[in-house]
Amino acid sequence: MDFSNKILLWYRQNMRDLPWRHESDPYRVWISEIILQQTRIDQGIGYYLRFIERFPNLSILAEASEDEILKMWQGLGYYSRARNLLTGARQIAKLHQGQLPGNAKQLKTIKGIGDYTAAAIASIAFNEAVPAIDGNVYRVLSRIFGIETPIDSSEGKKTFAKLAASLMHIEHPGDYNQALMEFGALHCKPAQPLCQSCPFQNECMAFQLKKVQDLPVKTKKIKPANRYLYYIVVEEQSAVYLKKRIAADIWKNLYDFPLIETPVATPVEQVMGSSAWKSLFGSATVEIKAISENIHHLLTHQHLHVRFIHVALKNGKFMHSNFLKIDKRNIFEWPVPKLIENYLNEKIEGQ
Ligand code: SF4
User: pTM for this structure?
Assistant: First the structure.
């Protein structure tokens, strides 16, 4: 049996029953693929089901507000996916009569759809024989075929794309692509692959040459940057202040509290005596209500060291036109980073 039939057979015997696997509706395939990028499947299922319930088709999604989409996305991370999804939906509504384009080449013209997502949608929803290559596929192919070219080099990308295309199952491209990814996710796992029960054991070069843990090869190792954030929760009677993050930075278009960022870890007293603090409060006086411990929040390429300084405004006003004054009882209606949601939840539990 050749490779593509063998992996397909494995898939049919081992595939997980996931909500989007009952779908070939291009819109739903698109939503599931975007949600699943950089997300664990068990975490993605709930988001997918809620998203599809609220936005059952493209025209409803295209009319949604960005705040609502970001709120639904809260906790999933990589918020550019949510913003692009909305832009993409509007683009499709306007330029493609509300229907996703039917091939990978045209799909790539939609905001947020890159090579991988275009191939996944085109193969699953439109039966186009194009390989969808994600991290799982790189790992499986590099191990079985013993390829040591780094997967993050341009040469590696070409090599794997060519190999994946040559292995493609022409009659069942969608299932074939999903089979390779599922095999990587469940069987040929990064740290503890199930080599002893593997149907590819005899032909797997990495297994035969005892190189399983060495493959795939990557060249770049990005060192995460440390950032030091001091959030100031400013309470004014029943209100608090939020600000929309509009800069090209983490959490773009989500809302957060007034923020002072320092280049190195700084004692809280020093932050409260800084010029940034003075420019926030001017002549207004505040009462310090609570100061959190240092909270360590990990993002893919950034380590955040965060403290929340909770203050109540005593005299004077917090006068900044770029902050929104909101009723604190409604704060959970705003799309905020998971870090802030966690802080608010802990605060409520602790009260
Ligand atoms: S033998 Fe091990 S490394 Fe090779 S494909 Fe199977 S699980 Fe992956």
Answer: 0.80
Domain ranges of the chain: 3-214, 225-350
| Domain 225-350 homologous superfamily, CATH | Nucleoside Triphosphate Pyrophosphohydrolase (3.90.79.10)
> d(Cα 291, Cα 9) in Å, to the nearest integer?
57
Residue 348's pLDDT is what? 61
The alpha carbon dihedral of 280, 281, 283, 288 has a sign of negative
The pLDDT assigned to 118 comes to 97
**For position 351, what pLDDT does the model report?**
53
| Other CB atoms within 10 A of residue 108 CB | 15
Tokens of 253: 């278009």
CA distance 62 to 28: 14
**Cβ 8 vs Cβ 172: under 8 Å:** yes
pLDDT reported for residue 321: 76
The residue with tokens 């001091």 is 230
Return the closest-CA partner of residue 36 out of 124, 160, 103.
124
Beta bridge partners of 303: 226, 298
C-alpha 139 – ligand 1 centre gap (Å) = 10
Nearest CA to ligand 1 atom 8: 188
> What is the rounded CA–CA span in Å between residue 160 and residue 147?
9
Active site residues: 33
pLDDT of residue 316: 79
Distance between CA atoms of residues 245 and 83, nearest Å = 13
C-alpha of residue 1 to centroid of ligand 1, in Å: 17
CA-CA distance, 83 to 67, in Å (whole number)? 9
* pLDDT at 349 (0 to 100): 56
Give the pLDDT confidence score for residue 52 in this predicted structure: 96
Centre of ligand 1 from the C-alpha of residue 179, in Å: 14
List 241's β-bridge partners, or say none. 325
Residues of the chain with pLDDT under 70: 1, 348-351
The answer as to CATH 1.10.340.30 being correct for domain 3-214 is: yes
Is any atom of ligand 1 closer than 6 Å to the C-beta of 188? yes
Q: What is the pLDDT of residue 266?
A: 94
The β-bridge relationship of strands 324-327 and 239-244 is antiparallel
